[in-house]
Amino acid sequence: MCGIFAFLNYNVARERRYILEVLFNGLRRLEYRGYDSSGIAIDADLRSPVAIDKREGNDGGEEASRLPYNSAPPLVFRQEGKIESLVRSVYSEVDAMDLNLEKSFSVHAGIAHTRWATHGVPSPRNSHPQSSGACNEFLVVHNGIITNYEVLKETLIRHGFTFESETDTEVIPKLAKFVFDKARDEEGEQTVTFSQVVTEVMRQLEGAYALIFKSAHYPNELIACKRGSTLILGVKELSDDKNSGKLFHDVKALTKDEKPKELFFSSDLCAIVEHTKNYLAIEDNEVVHIKDGCVSILKFDYGREKPASVQRALSVLEMEVEQIKKGNYDHFMQKEIHEQPHSLTTTMRGRLKDNSVVLGGLKDHLKTIRHSRRIIFIGCGTSYNAALAARPFLEELSGIPVTMELASDLLDRQGPIYREDTAVFVSQSGETADTLLALEYALGNGALCVGVTNTVGSTLARRTHCGVHINAGCEIGVASTKAYTSQIVVMAMMALAIGADKISTQARREAIINGLSDLPKKVAEVLKLDGEMRDLAKSLIDTQSLLVFGRGYNYATALEGALKVKEVALMHSEGMLAGEMKHGPLALVDETLPIIVIATHDACFSKQQSVIQQLHARKGRLIVMCSEGDATSVCPMGSCRVIEVPQVADCLQPVINIIPMQLLAYHLTVLRGYDVDQPRNLAKSVTTE
Ligand code: F6R
User: Fold this and answer.
1) Which of 77, 302, 614, 633 lies 20 to 30 Å from 587, alpha-carbon distance?
2) What residues does the SIS domain cover (predicted)?
3) pTM confidence score
């Protein structure tokens, strides 16, 4: 749940202030991934009394004398709190040190990190970059978790290392120094390369990680490697044909050219898109080394002594800079809610053809899916809810039993999964630890694994046998909104593709495909309820609790609506299956507790009408969501508040119905004065169990 970023300029003069701003901006883009502390490392001036970290009264002593003569210990700045508090503290420290911000570097390597604490409280000493020791000989920023750090720490302590932080990360730079010192003591200066040090470190590490290394022994070089967590390399060539728009660009071309360029590493594309569209999704066990403006990639293999060199093609990013900016909106969540007519259009683009659905990533596996004994949806949070919304339609069209699994619960129970199963993994980020662990479990049990994700190149996308990208665009608000509706639409399209061989359901399928084409327009209509939902939020601002009842297709809407309210508005809220009302929840009903009942027109409508009557009879404080024109039939005496929404095909109605709930959660949050985009205690992707 952290963000890592690095910036290396080569053969192009960049002032220190510019470098700092690129690093800060990278962190701002990644802040949604974690925001309790952050840090950066940049170069000091060549070795001088200033460079030898006088901030801590530390002259580096013997350690400093081991650095190359033209090298100085890099400067590390770390701070607790959001990125802006790091920015303030860096500028004030730089000022106190009299460091020249206008100094120009023709080549420079800087690294940065935004943290979401897992090991150790948020504090400067637990923030990254973590260091090998006094002279910052090796510095590391890390996303993920090192599972064997305790053993490594004990060994390093036995070799005389002292630890300052409570993090799992600190073992990595210290291990790098240990490997480096050992090689140098045994074989003398210049014998060990930076990539040899890093591959040896990788050999010792267990867990999931993406790492970027900077070292005073290898000035102006950077190394990035990963296992599990996502890591991207961005390449911006500054010569004549910049961002040439060529479809593919070989990394090989970057192995021997001295052209001016800027190179970036980032834990996701959001921090890269404003600089370049040429990128490479680094694969597991690859070690990407930038030196003298060249990029070389080694593939690390446990069995082999020496990693092999590999060639990779750069891809062209299909994302616009606007996606990562708020534009005229106050918050990303607000922007992403209002973007849904567009994101849904993108999700469906090129996939609905002549009354049929074409899903390129699935077509070779449809036969296997149709023959599976069971389809299992697996996900967490909002992604689970999206799958729940799609479940009835998939059951109806495929005729195959569809079961639901929360990834963590499946793992806790080690629930049975068989070769004859199709397991569909749903994850916006494609990085959620529980979902990925469940994926490994299902792969181990021989199931066909299908991925539904928003993140091209994510672990989920790479580890599944096949899948569909939801193409909702970058989602930055921590509360998932547009990804949810795009996930439902993708799973509805999957159901249509899986059921496409059945004559008996042809008319139904065609009606749904027409409904899909119309959906963005209907979503634009329901967004007009914005003002009404703001008024409703005003009336609920001081309530302690909110219940949401749904059933059938809209059981998911109840769960997801309640999840939105609790996660951003920090108000207790529960989504409940209306069919369960009489089995307990009815006891809660009184004149004060607000209850939202989803009663749009579908096969469950009359049952929801009777739920409304029963709640009414107990003087419940009711808010009813119904289809346009149904207000009087759901609320005959005008005694409850009504939200009227456009009616669409039953299986697509959850896409419409969630939108007033998203708007309600958004306005409640703003009115209650909470942070919309970065809610308390939450981060966008949950990369630890
Ligand atoms: C809520 C939310 C979370 C995520 C969950 C899974 O708004 O965003 O509930 O849905 O953490 O994340 P992904 O979809 O990235 O696997």
Assistant:
1) 633
2) 365-505, 536-679
3) 0.83
Give the confidence band of 255 by pLDDT, cuts at 50, 70, 90.
low
Q: Read off the pLDDT of each residue in 309-337 and give the average, rounded to a whole number.
A: 87
User: Mean pLDDT across the chain, nearest whole number?
Assistant: 90
| Rounded-to-10 torsion of CA 597, 602, 604, 606 | 80
pLDDT at 417 over 80: yes
Q: Does position 488 have pLDDT exceeding 90, yes or no?
A: yes
Residue nearest to atom 8 of ligand 1 (CA): 480
635 catalytic residue (yes or no) = no
Residue 663 lies in a domain: yes
Number of domains in the chain: 3
In terms of domains, do 332 and 284 share one?
A: no
Q: Considering the domain boundaries, does residue 174 fall inside one?
A: no
pLDDT for res 558: 98
Local structure of 349: helix, strand or coil? coil
CA distance 143 to 113: 9
Q: Which residue has the tokens 């070089």?
A: 221
Across the range 488-514, mean pLDDT stands at 96
Ligand 1 neighbourhood includes 458 CB (under 6 angstroms)? no
Which of 2, 225, 466, 604 is flagged as catalytic?
Answer: 2
Kindly give the number of the ligand 1 atom that is closest to the alpha carbon of 429: 15
Are 302 and 361 contained in the same domain? no
Question: Using a 6 Å cutoff on CB, does residue 479 contact ligand 1?
Answer: yes
Q: List the residue whose alpha carbon is closest to atom 7 of ligand 1.
A: 479
452, part of any domain: yes
Atom of ligand 1 at shortest range from CA of 684: 8
Domain that holds residue 409: 326-526
Return the ligand 1 atom nearest residue 381 CA. Answer: 9
486 lines ligand 1 (CB under 6 A): no
pLDDT at 118: 76
Rounded CA-CA distance 43/216 in Å is 9
Ligand 1 contact via 615 beta carbon (within 6 Å): no
CB of residue 427 inside a 6 A radius of ligand 1: yes
Q: Which of 229, 377, 382 to mutate to test the pocket of ligand 1 (most atoms within 8 A of CB)?
A: 382
* Helical residues (DSSP H) of 295-406, grouped into ranges: 332-338, 340-348, 366-370, 381-398
**Taking the mean position of all CA atoms in its chain, how far away is CA 245?**
27
